[in-house]
Design a protein that fits this description.
The complex is a heterodimer of chains A (569) and B (187). By secondary structure, chain A is mainly alpha-helical. In chain A, 64% of the residues lie in helices and 2% in strands. The radius of gyration of chain A is 23 Å and the shape is globular. Chain B is mostly helical and 187 residues long. The N and C termini of chain B lie far apart (76 Å). Classes of the chains: A mainly alpha (569), B mainly alpha (187). The interface between A and B is large, with 120 and 102 residues.
Amino acid sequence: MNTEILSPVLIVIVTFLLAAPLGKYIAKVFKGEKTFLDFFAPLENFIFRIAGTDPQKEMDWKENIKALLTINFLWFLWAIVILAFQNLLFMNPDNIIAMEPTQAFNTAVSFMTNTNLQHYSGETGASYLTQLIVFCFLQFVSAGTGIAAAALVFKALSNRSGNNLGNFYNLLLKSCTRILLPLAVIVALILIFNGTPVTFQGAEQVITLQGDTVSVARGPVAPMVAIKQLGTNGGGFFGPNSAHPFENPNYITNITELASILLIPVAMIFALGYYLNRRKFSVMILSVMLLGFTCLAASSIYFEMNGNPEIEKFGISQPLGNMEGKEVRFGPSLSALWGIATTSTSNGSVNSMHDSSTPISNLMQMLGMQLNAFFGGVGVGFINMFVFIILAVFISGLMVGRTPELFGKKIEAKEIKIAIIVALIHPLIILSGTALASHIWAASADPAGSLKWLNNPSFHGFSEMLYEFTSAGANNGSGMEGLSDNTPFWNIAAGIVMLIGRFIPIIGPVAIAGFISAKKFTPESAGSLKPDSVIFGVVLFSVILILGALLFFPGLALGPVSEYFSIMK
Amino acid sequence: MLNNIKQSLILSGITIILFGIIYPLFIFAAGQLMPEKSEGTPVIASGRIVGFENIGQSFTEDKYFNGRPSAVGYDAASTGGSNKGNSNPEYLEEVKSRIDTFLVHNPDVNKKDIPSELVTASGSGIDPNITTDAALIQISRIAKVRGISEVRLEELVREYTEKKYLGLLGIEKVNLLKLNIALDKIN
């Protein structure tokens, strides 16, 4: 038997074993209970004193969203200014030039929204200063924003009746200092120990054994890789991301980084159970997520390990599987698992090139981002799931002819309307973006000569465009990198899609949570819907699948599905 | 609103220092405990730096164990993959011609024994490894060029093989740079 499939199974199990205690800890942080990292408290209090923030002062959902949007806007300004002037600043040993305006816009939006779509290449497009004070910084706080937003929803669900959802600034800072920072330090140290560099020296010229002269780009890689994996950011130091041997030198770093992708998104669901004291509810959500995740991952692993049927026709052997765009030290099974982990969690880092994955893997990767509910990004993963839960509660209520209820609170027209809008905006921005791009391509007299977007013809070329908008809309950040996306059209279009795809799915659910929180509590009775039951899990899974399938399958049929049938044995 | 802006400004300023400067510097300082590794692990042979342990380099000459094709010509300052799709006809032509080239250089090898990794480009363009099997099928060519016995070469490949963890996890492979340095030392 091929032992290669053992690694993926093992990684998922270990991640869950680590996520359970982490979830318990996260719940304590949100509640302000005592933890073993309380030595951060003086630092946090000092920061709040200077900023004039009273961390105990709770705010309603509107005030919290205002705070969230204000601080995010400031981050955007900070990022775009540094990117546009990085050539004039220090810590730039390789003399990297400033970003062109639309690229700077796209990149600033991308890192602020936790997307990390990269229309530049790390080693040639960003100075060391930019990598640290813009990218590394935003990778912490954008992840913290998502976690804090989820904490607001947690609070709303636990309220008996009231408007206060907690203090966003307090939750943001603590998510960064108490959750992300300690984990990032641990992961960064594991990486350095295994050969990921952390240096401020520029590229090194070497003459190779064969006598070629090559320049080897380096930099402060380890700290950034750690946080990009943990915070579902995904923006790598180098162009090929975690396929680059400096970002991901061996098997140990590969499984560490893979587990880091899934760790916090899974832990957030455990945290929900501990926070609300409804463990069964979080087990139900995790089961739905794990089921979806396993379906996607198993299909992708199967097809990657089977190899490319077109290459099989040449009569050579594919002992490992589909190796184009993959590294020998990872092999197809762990590359495929990574591909699904990174897309279903909105991480977006890669350890193989998705443009060279088999068509069915592309299908599964895109579905991961389109459904965007199987674990999802840090914090926002739960928030997306919350929208589906509201819809599932509504549908279940209709089926049994009762007023829909969640935890003793009525779900009424206003909440359902918001949930529907949020659920529909996601496919709307993805599909209309793709339609626009396809139209421009089709209307151009000589697209291959004048637009030069696509690296591959036919169905696969369409997939490249669909993937890009899917990735932007889901705030994922991975890409089928053959797409030449550093053009004003792609920079601006993807930038707008990322903004909508980030803030609507945060504002909407937090508003729903705010409304629910303020409602009168009626104790659950024998007739109430049991949101922690298996039946509800089945309804929830069906809602996700049916919504996703109906909305996205026509698009997917034109891309990966058609490509699959065109090269089938 | 003003109060929001003031809080946001100060909080941002301090977190930039904390996460953009202090955190990376702390990791950098920790890295100084492992100075070689934090510099990227340079490899020294015959008195000079010939590369970095984990950064693959181009080995195309018949006297060396050859590596995988690279979409960027093993340029370690501008790395990347081919990004060609499975069905792309141009790409498939390229793979076919790589197979033919390989057979010309390795006339003793059966076509069906060529592992696909030797004719497909890696994701980073600087993959430092090939599998043990991919090294073994190159032995007869190297033996002829260098006049070393095949048995000795096979021993060398086995010696430089990085085994699976616990005998189960991962892929059996060789680091080409280390293997080829050892190969040069034999002659």
